[in-house]
Design brief:
Blueprint: H1 2-14, H2 22-74, H3 84-137, H4 146-149, H5 161-191
Helix pairs in contact: 2-3, 2-5, 3-5
Amino acid sequence: MADYDRRNQSYGASGHHNTISKETALQALNTIIQLHFEKTLEKKRAVDNQKKELWKLFHLFFLFLALIFVSQSQSPRLQCRHCWIPIGLISLEHLIFYVSVAQTLRCINGFKYQRRCHKLTLGLATDRLRQLKIRLSSGGELEDIAEDLEIHYQEPPDSYFGKFKRNWAIHFGFLMVIYGFMVSSSVVLLCF
């Protein structure tokens, strides 16, 4: 691309036309396509790794909740006046879990956003390559091809962020339901 910029600058300065060869143009677009395809795969792997971490967090969370629940139901010494202990532990665990999930979801959403950008850019570059091949196969010239070779990084519309907000709301709602259930079950087990 640096050679292209120098050729384009020399065209403006000297007034004569430097054409880009057909192979160079196709190779430039193929390089852009390959780069964004690899980036898309890289972001997909990153999302998958973060989802595995999220599942590990969920497993640990439910294991800890199960331990608290079993210890409450099996302990003859805990009474209603001691219910603040398990409720405090449940609250602390939920807070730690919420912060961990929030960070993991931020990472997942960031990788998904970047992946979507690379997919949009990949689609644009692929479309430009297809148009260029059609133009060349119909006997067209490579003049005024600069705008076809310049592929800007694409971003999704603002409505795309709604998907992340819904995902966040689902996780937060799930956490609140589990918290309410665990607190109420602690009170029921120890006081009634």
